[in-house]
Amino acid sequence: MGCAAFARRRMLPAMKAHPLVQVAAVASRDAAKAAETARRFDCRPVVGYEALLADDTVQAVYVPLPAALHVPWVEAALAAGKHVLAEKPLTTDPARTRALFAQARARGLVLRENVIFVHHSRHAAVRRLVEEGAIGELRTLHATFTIPQLPDDDIRYRPELGGGSLHDVGIYPVRAAVHLLREELEVRGAVLEHRAGRRVDTAGAALLRSRGGVMAHLAFGMEHAYRSRYELTGSTGRILVDRAFTPPADYAPQIVIESSSGTRTCSLPPEDQIASALSAFVSAVESGSPAPEDCLAQADLLAQIHRVAGREG
Fold first, then answer.
1. Structural domain total, the chain
2. Any catalytic annotation for residue 88?
3. Residue where a domain terminates, one of 114, 132, 151
4. Spatial separation of the C-alpha atoms in residues 32 and 131, rounded to whole Å
5. pLDDT tens-digit map of 15-29
6. Secondary structure string (H, E, C) spanning the chain
7. What is the CATH classification number for the domain harbouring 60?
8. Quick one: 30 and 166 in the same domain?
9. What does each C-alpha distance from 305 to 142, 162, 167, 171 come to in angstroms?
10. Can you say whether the dihedral through the CA atoms of 250, 14, 64, 62 is positive or negative?
11. What integer pLDDT is reported at residue 312 of this predicted model?
12. Are residues 92 and 146 located together in one domain of the fold?
């Protein structure tokens, strides 16, 4: 539903390559764009999103539209009986996020937010290392995701479309905290920065504390040098993960473990995390599994960060 650049560059090629996914149709409000995209991916072009939802041969829809358009089109897709995979953030309001999941549940449909990195097996390996005591008792998490400046006409600079660094890049370190710490988190401090001439936040930072006392220091921005990493520090060592959130499919990931006995590196085979995310969505559709609670925890934290940063700024 839509011909967003990320959909054409990453998601549609992964869908076409996936053995359990068939790209049936691509819809755009622009007939020429729909036709060109459909040719690339050997599917039907559809003009208008309503026409796509009226197609009974379509079982599920992928929604890469701007965040501000997610609520009406996800609601429409669910009402049409379609399973939905929507780009992150699902919404910018936790109440609306919960309402969409409730609608999906009431109709017996699967709704998922496309946070891709959590499906990479490296992060499960990191959690196992922490649980096994590789770095002693966990004390802190530092997570950072920053990207270079975007073109001035990029939708992420448009507040009316749900733009801004918090919901575009800040979502990665926030979800990392939820995914890795596995405890209820509270925002203890936050700041959002607005560069001159920008109508949205372009950078930010947040301090979170888990119920068990682990502190999470998060940083994000979209006019910076590229950085994508996190570090877990414990009572006896630390774990370092670089290129944590957007590794290419051919990248052989590593996990570095430092302790008093020295440094060791765990090397893992390359993995296409987009293919893994698609497999998770297909499995959810086949099994009818409920929505993961992590998505709701993430939505609450993003709203808290926005609220605390507004109060402090």
1. 2
2. yes
3. 114
4. 53
5. 999 999 999 999 999
6. CCCCHHHHHHHHHHHHHCCCCCCCEEEECCHHHHHHHHHHHCCEEEECHHHHHCCCCCCEEEECCCHHHHHHHHHHHHHCCCEEEEECCCCCCHHHHHHHHHHHHHHCCCEEEECCHHHCHHHHHHHHHHHCCCCCCEEEEEEEEECCCCCCCCHHHCHHHCCCHHHHHHHHHHHHHHHHHCCCEEEEEEEEECCCCCCCCCEEEEEEEECCCCEEEEEEECCCCCEEEEEEEECCEEEEEECCCCCCCCCCCEEEEEECCEEEEEECCCCCHHHHHHHHHHHHHHHCCCCCHHHHHHHHHHHHHHHHHHHHC
7. 3.40.50.720
8. no
9. 16, 16, 10, 11
10. negative
11. 61
12. no
Q: What whole-number distance in Å separates Cα of residue 77 and Cα of residue 192? A: 33
Reading the block at residue 61, the tokens are 């829809």
Same domain, 143 and 110: no
**Whether pLDDT at 243 is above 80:** yes
Residue 257 token pair: 């473990």
- Residue 148, by phi and psi: left (phi above 0), alpha (psi -120 to 50) or beta? beta
Domain holding 123, by residue range, is: 117-312
Rounded to an integer, what is the distance from CA 72 to the centroid of its chain? 20
* pLDDT per residue as tens digits for the range 249-292: 999 999 999 998 899 999 999 999 999 999 999 999 999 887 77
pTM over 0.90: yes
Given 16, 33, 82, 88, which residue is catalytic? 88
> Do 171 and 88 contact (CB within 8 A), yes or no?
yes
Final residue of a structural domain among 114, 148, 165:
114
- The predicted-structure confidence for 115-134, as pLDDT tens digits, reads as follows 999 999 999 999 999 999 99
